[in-house]
Amino acid sequence: MTAAAAGAGELTTLSPEIVRLRAETSPDWLAQRRRAAWDAFESMPWPSSQRDEDWRRTDISGLRAERFLPLDDVDGGMAASMAQAWDSAEPNAAFAMDAPNVGPAVSDADALLAQGVIITTLEEAAALHPELVQRALARVAIDESKFIALWNALWRGGVFVYVPRGVEALAPAWIAHPASGDERAVIPATVVLLDDASSLTVVDAYASPPGPHELFSDAVTMLNIGRDAQLDYILLQQWGERVWHVATHRATLEANARLHFFGATLGSHVQKSYWEALLDGAGSEADIAGVCFAEHDQHIDHQSLQAHRARDTRSDLLLKVAVRDKARSVYSGLIDVAPEAVHADGYVQNRNLLLSEGAKADSVPRLEIKANDVRCGHGATAGHIDEEQRFYFQSRAVRRADADALIVRGFLDDIVKRVPHPGVAKLVASLLDAEVSGLPQIGLAEAEAQDED
What we know:
Largest sheet: 11 strands, mixed
Strand content: 25-35%
Number of helices: 10
Distance between the termini: 47 Å
């Protein structure tokens, strides 16, 4: 695929000139990384549903990435909408906006800064704290995949959070990744580094307006959790209905580290998202929960990895999905137990509710066990609304539509209880209530931007 100018003087995202511009404003170590990543990107083929097992059920041949210009501005109403979500769910959180020409990048962070927590743009951290950023990026190679290579070459802005040893953060960090416009590419970057015996809650939110505008998102989140540290990570994905979204969310856990990961997927046209927990330290634990509601012609693909690489590690994953209209959900989950990971305890399950005859859900949970004395398992279900449950409600004078809504909401209710923050749990519940009642939450409506005095 060849990059071409989209208009007079405009360079697309897939242009070496963009890489050169990014490198010029980067410290030497990062500039070298960007250039090497671009070389890797150019040498790799695009993923193919015909050739690559990871992509067998997700076709991105319709993505013409050479058409997309780099995101250089975000509508003020979009930024205001994301700030309103933060203010309603967790007004005490520090707020970081990962968007060009929207400021300030970080606000309401006094409580964290007083504890020695660093919260800033990833670009600024790369210049001021290079040793921390290099340490945090060590677990993402520049050439792991076509999309990760592109991210390494082109990310801009981004958000970096570092919690020092022994610090229990007094406030969460709320990170917003807004996008708007048409035929724009956004490269969201969230990098979190928790030193030993520290703790933090992070909310990572992605959104764009509803409507026909086409966007391309290539996102990477790196979560580094030190020995005896704990991270609560909440992912909210609410892209508009014509967004192509590829993402890797990777957590690396050292000895006795704890991860609570929750993801809510509501938006995008096509999504391919990797949720990965690498349990590298003995005694580390990861609890992963997610909910997805897909409709219209959405194609939502989740792929998870629970990699047990040390003894006495534990992981548990539950993804619940509701699909209606002509939407399709794809889930592939792997528990991979290394030979040295004795006493590993892992479970993965995917539960799917089909709300229309045209809706589809594919589920492929897998185990690869290379150690003795482990306890691992998997489960998957797919089905329609239970007729006996529907009859029970209707026999008590509940209308069919209301009965179905109660059943769907009951199916999703236990996953909402796993959101590791009460304010965000309330927000997720309200979004799901709207979905169940027939109000799609694909995209986030723009608020009126407030003018600065």
